[in-house]
Request: fold
Amino acid sequence: MDTKVYYIYGEDNEVLNEAALYIRSGKNVVFPTETVYGLGANALDKEACEKIFKAKGRPQDNPLIIHVANKDISDYAKNISKNANILIDKFWPGPLTIILDKSDIIPKEVTGGLESVAIRMPENKIALELIKRSGVPIAAPSANLSGKPSPTSIEHCVRDLSGRVDMIIGGETCKYGLESTVVEVKDNKVTILRPGKITADMINEVGIDVKLDPAITKESKVIVPKSPGMKYKHYAPDCDMIIVVGDKNKVINYIKNKTENFIKEGKKVGIISTEENLDQYTKGIVMNIGKGTDLSGIGSKLFSVLRELDKNKVDYILSEGFTSNGIGMAIMNRLKKASGHKIINV
Ligand code: TXA
Ligand code: MG
Reply:
C-alpha cells in the first residue's frame, strides 16, 4: 500500500481537506494529538475500523477510543451521568478519555464487543480540525505497531506504519507524550483505568471522588484490568529492562555496577538518566530523560528515549525510577509495563 506522508506545521487547509476526504471514504489517516499520534478511521464505518486492527497488528478485542470535536456526545453515548458531564466540562478538550455506555450507532467492532465506548475530545488543533472536516467521530488507537512504544513524532509513525496505512500527517512532537488518562464512569462512579496527564488529584479537585482500578496500583498479575488494553504486554523491548528505585546515590551506584558487569560480559547497555545524574554514568549509551523535578518533561520524552535505545539495539536498559506522585504515576505505569514489572528497590 502506498502511504502519503505530509509534514505540516499548523493547520494546512489542503492537506486537512484531503485527509478528511480519506476518513470519509473509509481510509486510515495517522494524525497528531497532544498525547501521542493516533491511527484514525471513521468510527461509524466498521470496515474502516477493521483496517486499523490490521495495520497495527492489534488484537480484535482491544477497543478503540473515538475522538470527537464537540462536547455534545449524546449521539454516541447513553446514560451520561452528572460526574461524566463535570469531567467533560472541566477536562475537554484535553488528555482525558471517558468510558460510557455506547449508543447503537457505534459498531461493536470499535468497542471490542463491549457495550461501553471510550470517548475523548483532543485539544490538538490538527486533530480537532480533522475531526470537524471529516464530519464523523474518528476512532483512533495510538499509531504504533502493537507492542511498540506509542509514537510521539511523525518519524515514529512513518517507521512503524509506512506501507500499512493510507496517509500520515503531522510534524509536531506531541506536547504530553503519554497516552490519555482513561476513566470509566458507571452509575456516576469514576474509576481511573489508565493513569495519564489528568491525575486523580486533578479529578478530586473538581469535586469527584475517584478510585484507581486495582490493576494499576497492585503488582499482582492475577487482577484482570477493566481496560482490555491494559492486559496486553505493552512495549516490551527485545532486551531486558530494569527500573531502579530508592536512595539517589544507591540507585546511581547500582546502575553503574550493573553496567560495568554487563559490559564485561560483552553486552550493550542503555541507561535512562535524569539530567542531574548524567555525569555519573561514564559507560553505556546514556539517554537524558530531563530534569528529575520536571515530571511533565520526563513524560514527554519517555517513549522517544525507549525508541532511541531500541534503534541502538542494546541488550539491557537500566532506568532510574521516579516518584509515583502526580503524573509520575503514569510514567512509572508505562515503565513498569515496558520492563515487565522488573523493579529493583536498592
Ligand atoms: O491518548 C490517547 O488515548 C491516544 C490518542 C491517539 O488519543 N490513544 C490511545 O489509544 O492511547 P489506545 O487504543 O492505544 O489505548 C486505548 C485504551 C486501551 O487500553 C483500551 O483497552 C482502552 O483504552 N479502552 C478503549 N475502550 C474501552 C472500553 N470500552 N472499556 C475499557 N477500556 C477501553
Ligand atoms: Mg496504544
In short: Residues 158 and 180 are 22 Å apart (CA to CA). The chain has a mean pLDDT of 95.
